[in-house]
Amino acid sequence: MSQAADFTEIRYERPAEPVARIVLARPDKRNAQDMKMLYQLNKAFDRAAQDDTVKVIILSADGPHFSSGHDLSDFGSQVGEHGAPITGGGGFARPGPEGYMAREEEIYLGFCWRWRNLPKPTIAQVQGKVIAGGLMLVWPCDLVIASEDAEFSDPVVAFGVNGHEFFVHAWELGHRKAKELLFTGDSIGALEAKELGMVNQVVPRDQLEAFTLQMAQKIAKRPSVGLRFAKMSVNQSLEAQGMWTAVQSAFNLHHVAHAHNWVLHGRVVDPAGADIVRREAKAGRKSQETTPALPPADQ
Ligand code: ZN
User: Fold this and answer.
1) Is the dihedral of CA 196, 291, 150, 274 positive or negative?
2) C-beta atoms surrounding 66 within 10 Å
3) How far is the CA of 112 from the centre of ligand 1 (A)?
């Protein structure tokens, strides 16, 4: 089977030497992640990591939006259907919270932590909306290059959970902004994300691809061993501050919340959340259309 034929939800490209680019290719679904896409992504990351002719990896997305998060229509897929499990934990098909937690530990927490620790620099190239599980693809990358229209949100507190499953919010945004993002469900724009240190550079939409590739090529001029150990050193400095323990702790609470919602609502999330998020998104769009930006209050 050719390399290209391995992938249907993503593309694996070599836009320039020695750079690999992995592209989310479900723009009709706003690049929502189903299990098939996540296993293909993992396979593509492995391919890039294990190919010694690749020094830097870009993760980009087709269409106007980087990713709208998990594909909620994909609850029927079973771990193992689209590739060998990576966490080795098993128990994926067990009934109740045990099986559901094992599933999310594999396809969300497990993949994110794995991608975060790939031995080569990774750059997320981001445009448009990045919602909830979409952040789980951006945050494991080493650098984030965003276009001016990029915006980031995690509105899932409305669904009765603490946030998406790779809970590095406070590490990415600082603790106060992380709480605002989670409590309100509001988006953070590209420039604000840059001020917060979550985004490295913001560029016009039409320059996003070229700028990102240029940065990847500049990085690739350094020896791979220096890049690999620089990455490990920064990552390990965060781990020394307790990052991995904190992420696991939040993941455990996330599954208390799923179990809670199952008892109360018969579903892993509070079904009222969809209406809240939809209503607020609609109100936000309407105010953008009808209300010009107000000058600061004169006081
Ligand atoms: Zn979950």
Assistant:
1) positive
2) 29
3) 14
Tokens, residue 9: 């939800």
* Gap from CA of 166 to ligand 1 centroid (Å): 9
C-alpha to C-alpha distance for 258 and 164, rounded to whole angstroms: 12
pTM value is: 0.93
Average pLDDT on 153-182 reads 97
- Helices 243-265 and 96-104, axial angle in degrees (round to 10): 140
Concatenating the DSSP letter of every residue in 31-64 gives: T-B-HHHHHHHHHHHHHHHH-TT--EEEEEESSS
d(CA 149, CA 126): 9
Mean pLDDT confidence for 140-161: 98
Structure tokens at 262: 């199952």
Distance from Cα 76 to the centre of ligand 1, integer Å = 15
pLDDT of 295 over the 50 cut: no
Q: What residue ranges do the domains of the chain occupy?
A: 10-290
Q: CA 63, CA 83: separation in Å to the nearest integer?
A: 26
pLDDT bracket for residue 5 (50, 70, 90) = low
Task: Characterise 10 by phi-psi region: left (phi > 0), alpha (psi -120 to 50), beta (else).
Answer: beta
Both tokens of residue 227? 């890049």
Write down the CATH superfamily of domain 10-290: 2-enoyl-CoA Hydratase; Chain A, domain 1 (3.90.226.10)
**Cβ atoms of residues 62 and 126 within 8 Å:** no
99 Cα to the center of ligand 1, angstroms: 12
